[in-house]
Amino acid sequence: MKMNKMEEIWMIVAIVIIVIAMSITGYQAFAMGMSPPSHKEHIDPQTVEEHPEFSEPGVYETGDNEYEVIMTLQAFQFEPSEISVPEGAEVTFRMATKDVVHGVNVPHTNLNTMVIPGYIQEITQTFNEAGEYIMVCNEYCGTGHQMMSATITVEE
Ligand SMILES: [Cu+2]
To answer: What range(s) does the Cytochrome oxidase subunit II copper A binding domain occupy (predicted)?
Structure first.
């Protein structure tokens, strides 16, 4: 088969690009260990309240300036809805929803995630600046969605 010179060049260019892209992805996955989140913990959304961990939502001190917030979400509230931690605290939020998908977003921080029925979500955030932060639901979850918020007070 006789091929046009330009066609041949472009075919080689395309193959080289594919090989480079696959090598980068392969290197990241196998050599650097990059992969989608694998922290997978299941929970039955209908029995969240009876779950040994989520039966008592609240703020728990787990170490030296380390806190764990056990939080449940439902239309249209976060529980606890008032969280208070000292400045510089490393706070791990463990969250479960009792009904639909909710979002958890604290503006001006990196805390932004979804909580999906059936799964426990975990996210850690360090609060280095004192002040009052608002936590909002940023996944539309029903008619009262805009009311769904909590406050985090970071004390000096
Ligand atoms: Cu919501």
So the answer is: 62-156
Report the separation in Å between the CA atom of 130 and the middle of ligand 1, taken as the mean of its atom positions: 26
pLDDT of residue 37: 65
For ligand 1, a single-atom ion, which residues have Cβ within 5 Å? 102, 137, 141, 148
d(CA 26, CA 7): 28
pTM beyond cutoff 0.85 = no
* 115, 104 Cβ separation under 8 angstroms: yes
Cβ atoms within 10 Å, residue 93? 24
Query: What is the rounded CA–CA span in Å between residue 144 and residue 45?
Result: 20
The stretch 132-152 carries a mean pLDDT of 96
Residue 140: CB atoms within 10 A of its CB come to: 12
DSSP conformation class of 117: T
Query: Any idea what DSSP says for residue 50?
Result: G
Ligand 1 centroid–CA 52 distance in Å is: 23
